[in-house]
Amino acid sequence: MKKAFLQLHVAVILAGLTGVLGRLITLNEGLIVWYRLFFTVIVLWLMWLVLPGTRGSSKGPLWKVYLAGGIVAIHWVLFYGSIKYANVSIGLVCFSAVGFFTSLIDPLFTKRRLDPWELVLGVMVMIGIYLIFHFDQSFKTGIILGVISSLLAALFTVINKILLKEHDARSLTHHELTGGWMILSLLLPIYLYLFPHRELIPGISDTGWLLVLSIFCTVLAFNLSLEALHKISPFTVNLSYNLEPVYGILLAFLVYREDRELDRGFYYGISIIIFTVILQSWRVWKKKSY
Asked: 276 and 123 in contact (C-beta within 8 Å)?
């Protein structure tokens, strides 16, 4: 269990870096995700060819895995859209709504009873997001995109927990991200028609950051999260990912001085979110101590 929590925490730190990179890269959100998946898939296939031990095994139908990859691809597009329309801090805080949506979605898929505590903690996170929205509506579009993104992230994590019963974590990562790139490739022409961007090919600087985003924040973080899911519930994984805003926001404050763009509502909201994460972590450790 301790190893699983360590893996999860490292994955959360890497995830916190994605927001800063999203603002740093000059491409629009659709192209960022397409190139992120493109480079990621290349790395995964090279690993599959060179390192047989990374191939894993699959017993279930792969079309479900590809659809799950499509969900995560669209989640990323909306996540980076939230950052582009608002800022890194707002995009990351909205991602915290994942816990609330997971508390509702997970029982529907797994047939388990609704946990009142999970629902309460999830609602507390939503209250935190509402406080941010209530005090400053200049980020309205970014907040809406961020909340929808968190809904898809919750759906993706719950589906992943089910898919792990039929697929090895390494194989699941490989096929999911490949499927996500394929589905996004089909949707990208429509997306670029609706939201055109003057540059389609990244420059040298953008390419370098995209490689960091792909190798460390995607391949490595994905595998660590999936390994942790073997021991930890989807709700706990998603709620732990609420620490992602803490790391990402601190980086955004240092790199972009976003603390100058935010009012007191933001700090009220994120205080509630951090308190919620502490409560859930305490609940999990208390259960395992018996």
From this structure: no
Residue 238: CB atoms within 10 Å: 29
**Geometric angle at alpha carbon 184, from 47 and 65, rounded to 5°:** 60
Query: Which residues make Cβ contacts (< 8 Å) with residue 246, sequence separation at least 6?
Result: 16, 270, 274
Please, are residues 230 and 4 in contact by the beta-carbon 8 Å criterion?
A: yes
Domain range for 37 is 2-289
Lowest mean pLDDT among 72-81, 92-101, 139-148: 92-101
Which runs of consecutive H residues, i.e. helices, occur in the chain? Answer: 2-24, 29-50, 62-85, 88-94, 98-110, 116-135, 140-163, 169-194, 204-214, 221-229, 234-240, 244-256, 264-289
pLDDT at 107 over 70: yes
Q: Is pLDDT of 95 > 70?
A: yes
- Say how far apart CA 211 and CA 254 lie, in whole Å: 22
Number of domains, the chain: 1
Chain center to CA of 101: 13
Three-state DSSP at 47 gives helix
Distance, in Å, from the CA atom of 118 to the CA atom of 155, rounded to the nearest integer, reads: 16
**Residue 199, SS3 per DSSP:** coil
pLDDT band at residue 54 under the 50/70/90 scheme: low
d(Cα 49, Cα 31) in Å, to the nearest integer?
Answer: 27
